[in-house]
Amino acid sequence: MTVPEPAPPVIETRAVVKSFAGVQALRGVDLTVRAGEIHALLGQNGAGKSTLVKILNGVHPAGSFSGDIRVAGRPVSFRSTSDARAEGVGYVPQEIEVLEQLTVAENVFAGQTGLGAGVLVSQRRLEERTRALFAEIGLAIDPRALVASLTAAQRHLVMIARALSFRPRVLMLDEPTASLSGVEVERLFAVLRRLKAQGSTMIFITHRLPEVLAICDRATVLRDGRVAAEIGREEFDAERFIFAMSGQRLQRLYPHHEPPPAAPPLLSVRNLTIAGRFGVNRGVSDVGFDVRPGEILGLAGLLGSGRTEILHAIYGRIPFAGEISIAGRPVTIRKAGDARAAGIALLTEDRKRDGLLFNLPVGANITIGNLGPLASRGMVSDRKEKSAVLAAMRALAVKARSPQSSVAHLSGGNQQKLLFARVLMSGPRVLLLDEPTKGVDASTRHEIYRLIVDLAEKGVALVVVASELEEIIGIADRCLVVADGRIVDEFNRGEGSEDRVLRAVAAAQAAATMATALPASERTG
Amino acid sequence: MERTVGRPAAAETSGRALRDRLTRLVAVGEVGVLLALVVIVAFFFVLEPAFLSERNIRAILRVVSFVGIIAIGQTLLLVCGEFDLSVGAVAGLSAVVSAKLMTALALPVPIALLGGVAVGGLVGLVNGLAVVRLRIPAFIQTLGMLFIGQGLIQVVTNGYPVYPLPKVIGEIGMAGFVFGLGWSFVFFVVAAVSADFVLRRTVLGRNMYATGGNPEVARLVGIDTARMKIGAFVTVGMLAAVAGMFVMADLSSGTTSIGSGWELTVIAGVVVGGVSLFGGAGTMAGGLIGILLLQVVTSGLVVIGVNANWQQIAVGLIMVIAVGLDVLRRRTFIAGSGSEPPAEPAGPAKS
Question: How many domains does chain B have?
Answer without folding.
Answer: 1
